[in-house]
Amino acid sequence: MTDGYLVAGKITGCYGIKGWVRIHAYTDPVDNFLGFGGWMLKQRGATRPIVFDAGKRHGKGLVAHIAGVDDRDAAEAFKGLEVLVKADVLPPLEQGEYYWHQLQGLQVWCHTEGEPPVLLGAVDYMIDTGANDVMVLKACEDSIDERERLIPYLEGDVVTEVDLERGVIAVDWFPEE
């Protein structure tokens, strides 16, 4: 999160010759991205506003027109940039649901029956594999080792508890996996 802003998507390339770009949206459903407004671009550590004056779903992603950009060469300069939105524009979630940014930084503890809890690491970021979300863990102070781990975010099967106040996620997982 950057000063109250969250990464909502990334411009992945150009679409056509009239200033349209392809956007990989991190929203679910993808179309929600277009409804936010107030977008900001993240470029070289700084942010600046961007306006999409038209947009639509295209295949599995989105395409949108950048206001004031009317040719492919100008649109090319936006390729690879992240698009941010204010965190407070996100809709509230049901009890037990979490936005990815809320999980980042939480410690992940393995709780195997009959064994003492083991700290596997902290959530660095999340990825969407299509089948399910995956937590990418990085080693942290007091973690069992220095390995990066990929653990499926499967509520009930693997993830047994999320406690935002304590900053922990409990998992039923084998430390050597």
UniProtKB/TrEMBL annotation:
GO terms for cellular component: cytoplasm; ribosome
Domain annotation Ribosome maturation factor RimM PRC barrel: ranges: 100-173
GO BP: any one term: ribosomal small subunit biogenesis
A molecular function (GO) term: ribosome binding
Pfam families according to UniProt: PRC_RimM, RimM
Main subcellular localisation: cytoplasm
Gene3D superfamilies linked: PRC-barrel domain, RimM
Domain RimM N-terminal: 8-87
Lineage: superkingdom: Bacteria
Alphabetical keyword list: Chaperone, Cytoplasm, Ribosome biogenesis, rRNA processing
Subcellular location: Cytoplasm
Coiled coil: none
Function (record text): An accessory protein needed during the final step in the assembly of 30S ribosomal subunit, possibly for assembly of the head region. Essential for efficient processing of 16S rRNA. May be needed both before and after RbfA during the maturation of 16S rRNA. It has affinity for free ribosomal 30S subunits but not for 70S ribosomes.
Entry's free-text remark on domains: The PRC barrel domain binds ribosomal protein uS19.
Family according to the record: Belongs to the RimM family.
The protein's assembly and partners: Binds ribosomal protein uS19.
UniProt name for this protein: Ribosome maturation factor RimM
Gene: rimM
